[in-house]
Amino acid sequence: MEIATSLLKSDSNEGESDPLDGYYKKLATNLTPLKKDSDMFAMVNEYLQNTHASTHREYSLELIDAFEVERLGENERFKTFENLHNRQLLWHGSRVSNFGGILSQGLRIAPPEAPATGYMFGKGIYFADMSSKSANYCRTSPDANVGVLLLCDVALGNMYERLQADYIEKLPKGYHSCFGHGKTEPNDSMAKYICDGKVKVPLGTATSSNVPRHASLLYNEYIVYDIAQVNIKYLLKVRFNYKRGYY
């Protein structure tokens, strides 16, 4: 309980609201803080900073705290897919007010709080490899500038590549996920690996991808259609430092 409460208490400034406090007694989730001098904290922060997209200039992101997440039963559920190839540590963002449900129930497909128009590739769980793409879904503002981001171990397997929006009811046979290939992506040569080399962390700085000119997506999107392909690994408390002139 003490660790959970510190999620939104530590290092906060006056005027920042912390609406998650009331949830934690009900969460079947262990949150273990990462030491700020640890290699993992440094890697998470590198990933956060390196993959901030150039089109999201209105704010910078400051990592306040990071927590290792262990949801009751999620590791066991993930075992169905843990040997699937192409596992990546990817970003997911949502409003702070949604995290009580996310931590207690896990990431869900088409939850009631999700925008009905937000399914370019069908109803699934959406992830990004650019931190600010997911950060935009935190819906922060200069007056409420603390958000929460997740880093999830996502078992992607064979990805069904799309270059523009394509509403998918069911993946073609032989595919495990959908990959919306964007024009800009992390430099693959800078990627790191965790979990004994099983999980890729695409933390490289932004570079142009090799997609054709007619591709319409700015950044990569990864979508899975089975909740068991997702294992929440880290929760980040992040301050959005808004720049004057944008608001």
UniProtKB/TrEMBL annotation:
EC code(s) of this entry: 2.4.2.-
Major subcellular site: nucleus
Keywords: ADP-ribosylation, DNA-binding, Glycosyltransferase, NAD, Nucleotidyltransferase, Nucleus, Transferase
Location(s) in or outside the cell: Nucleus
First-tier enzyme category under EC: transferase
Presence of the UniProt keyword NAD in the record: yes
Family statement: Belongs to the ARTD/PARP family.
PANTHER family reported in the protein's UniProt record: DNA LIGASE, POLY [ADP-RIBOSE] POLYMERASE 1
Protein name: Poly [ADP-ribose] polymerase
Protein source organism: Naegleria lovaniensis
Lineage, uppermost ranks: Eukaryota, Discoba, Heterolobosea, Tetramitia, Eutetramitia
